[in-house]
């Protein structure tokens, strides 16, 4: 049986597009926290596959350290100070559809006593651990799980992460985009409830029930901490691992959730809900074969619709493979969108493939937009899950997107990491040399420009364009040099080329508008200034340029009517 699992896992690693589709996954059903009740399995099927080579970077969300919690586990001796005031926190009765057997046990009736003074040290230490954990993260993350991302759009219980906060510094000191922090979940006082729970000697089942309450109420950080506390006391209970996986999924920490589900299944190979939860996670990651494997072992938790979703994702993945083989970039863009929409919404390699197709089509802004929707995990987690070669392939695409938009520092960082992970990859070596050459040319040109040597600066930017002919920042910088030298027609050509790959590039549009104004092309100048006015209504330079161009246009039309 274990051999069958390993074969299924190996088959999943081999196929579609090498590094791009080395792993598969599906649309996650809404998960509910387990109450530890598992439906017995009719057949003696083997446990789920537990692959070892999968992941990216360590997720910024640091859970409570299980070993440390174990060290602070308190023995169940009675509380000494009987004069302390007693406080009760009623535990609400679980919903029948959330806890299948509706039998949480007598622990629900249990009253909670105030911690005696001699126990304050434990509670304070645990509270400090939780607060340090939240401060380390600094923010909450949505279901696509990107830690420390610069912007999010909330949709229901999910948060779509927008990677738009990269700072950019170009030749003329382009304004840096600030990174917007993501608001932290409310009910932060729940961390104190965890401390009180531990300090009053609650057993792990009580902690699990408290975690289920927080999960049900959307307090996923608090639920995760409670499940961690239960695991620290009883690390061999599969239900705690499965529930922790649900909380991690809700926080967008998909790869960590996979590992917790695997551990739950290792402990209890016939755990239907854990199999079903893992099947959904694999489907979201685009790993269809693994998803189907676990769907078939989910017992009554799964239905025929789950299989149909998995097969739909597989169909679109196959079309992606064929489109890339034919170098049909437009069709590849279409099919990657269909793959994501049909359920593989956390499949990092599918987003990378989509971005690559946009780059090949010289649609650089859209390539960046595609990767901004991609879930971002830390390097350690990505490398662990996807393997160093798989993650290196993703970094190659990221480096090219960074470079195309002038984020040269990020491009160098990404491709150097890829080179460390996959030293013998020829594509990595080629992209590394190109990124280094373009970055060096840009720095050289900037130095010349700052000293007023515009001819040399223009030549330096041209050297960089020899390696990356559609680089929007180098084109715009060379246009600035040409403008300074009075070569307005050539400057318009470079500005237009930059806008063709990056339509929202305001600096290139302003450069073109100024050049057209110098040449007396007032209609064209007004058109660009009006677009800029909508985007930056308080920019004085744009306002002055627009007013001047409009006045000249009115005068010209007046003379023509005489």
TrEMBL record:
Domain of life, per lineage: Eukaryota
PANTHER family: GENOME ASSEMBLY, CHROMOSOME: A10, TPR REPEAT-CONTAINING THIOREDOXIN
Protein name, UniProt field: Inactive TPR repeat-containing thioredoxin TTL3
Disordered as annotated region, ranges: 32-64, 92-113, 151-176
TPR repeats: 204-237
InterPro entries, A to Z: TPR-like_helical_dom_sf, TPR_rpt, TTL1-4
PROSITE patterns named among the record's database cross-references: TPR (PS50005)
Keyword presence, Signal: no
Keywords, in A-Z order: TPR repeat
Polar residues: bias regions: 34-64, 92-111, 151-165
């Amino acid at each position: 049986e274990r051999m069958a699992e390993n074969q299924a896992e190996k088959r999943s690693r081999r196929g579609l597009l090498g590094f791009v589709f080395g792993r598969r996954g599906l649309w996650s059903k809404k998960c509910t926290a387990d109450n530890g009740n598992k439906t017995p399995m009719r057949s003696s099927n083997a446990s789920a596959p537990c692959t070892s080579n999968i992941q990216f970077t360590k997720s910024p969300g640091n859970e409570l350290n299980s070993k440390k919690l174990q060290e602070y586990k308190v023995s169940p001796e009675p509380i000494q100070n009987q004069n302390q005031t007693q406080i009760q926190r009623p535990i609400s009765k679980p919903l029948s559809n959330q806890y299948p057997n509706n039998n949480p046990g007598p622990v629900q009736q249990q009253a909670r006593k105030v911690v005696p003074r001699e126990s304050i040290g434990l509670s304070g230490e645990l509270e400090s651990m939780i607060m340090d954990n939240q401060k380390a993260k600094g923010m909450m993350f949505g279901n696509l799980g990107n830690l420390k991302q610069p912007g999010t759009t909330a949709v229901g219980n999910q948060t779509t992460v927008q990677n738009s906060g990269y700072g950019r510094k170009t030749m003329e000191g382009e304004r840096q985009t600030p990174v917007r922090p993501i608001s932290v979940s409310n009910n932060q006082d729940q961390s104190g409830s965890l401390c009180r729970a531990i300090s009053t000697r609650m057993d792990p089942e009580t902690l699990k029930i408290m975690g289920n309450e927080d999960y049900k109420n959307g307090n996923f950080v608090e639920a995760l901490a409670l499940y961690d506390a239960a695991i620290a006391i009883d690390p061999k209970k599969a239900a705690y691992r499965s529930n922790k996986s649900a909380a991690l999924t809700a926080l967008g920490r998909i790869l960590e959730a996979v590992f917790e589900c695997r551990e739950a299944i290792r402990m209890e190979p016939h755990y239907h809900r854990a199999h079903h939860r893992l099947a959904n996670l694999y489907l979201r990651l685009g790993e269809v074969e693994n998803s189907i494997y676990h769907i078939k072992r989910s017992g009554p938790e799964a239905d025929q619709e789950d299989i149909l979703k998995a097969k739909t994702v597989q169909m679109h993945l196959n079309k992606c493979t064929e489109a890339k083989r034919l170098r049909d970039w437009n069709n590849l863009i279409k099919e990657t969108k269909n793959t994501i929409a049909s359920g593989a919404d956390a499949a990092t390699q599918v987003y990378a493939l989509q971005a690559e197709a946009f780059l090949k089509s010289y649609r650089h802004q859209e390539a960046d937009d595609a990767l901004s929707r991609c879930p971002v995990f830390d390097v350690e987690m990505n490398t662990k899950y996807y393997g160093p070669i798989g993650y290196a392939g993703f970094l190659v695409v990221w480096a090219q997107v960074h470079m195309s938009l002038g984020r040269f520092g990020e491009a160098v960082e990404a491709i150097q990491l890829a080179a460390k992970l996959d030293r013998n990859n020829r594509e990595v070596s080629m992209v590394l040399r190109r990124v280094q050459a373009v970055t060096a040319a840009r720095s050289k040109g900037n130095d010349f420009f700052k000293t007023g040597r515009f001819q040399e600066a223009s030549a330096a930017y041209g050297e960089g364009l020899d390696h990356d002919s559609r680089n929007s920042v180098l084109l715009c910088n060379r246009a600035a040099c040409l403008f300074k030298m009075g070569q307005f027609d050539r400057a318009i050509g470079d500005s237009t080329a930059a806008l063709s790959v990056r339509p929202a590039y305001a600096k290139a549009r302003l450069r073109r508008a100024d050049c057209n104004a110098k040449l007396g092309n007032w209609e064209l100048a007004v058109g660009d200034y009006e677009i800029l006015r909508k985007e930056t209504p308080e920019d004085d330079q744009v306002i002055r340029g627009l007013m001047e161009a409009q006045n000249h246009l009115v005068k010209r039309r007046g003379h023509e009517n005489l």
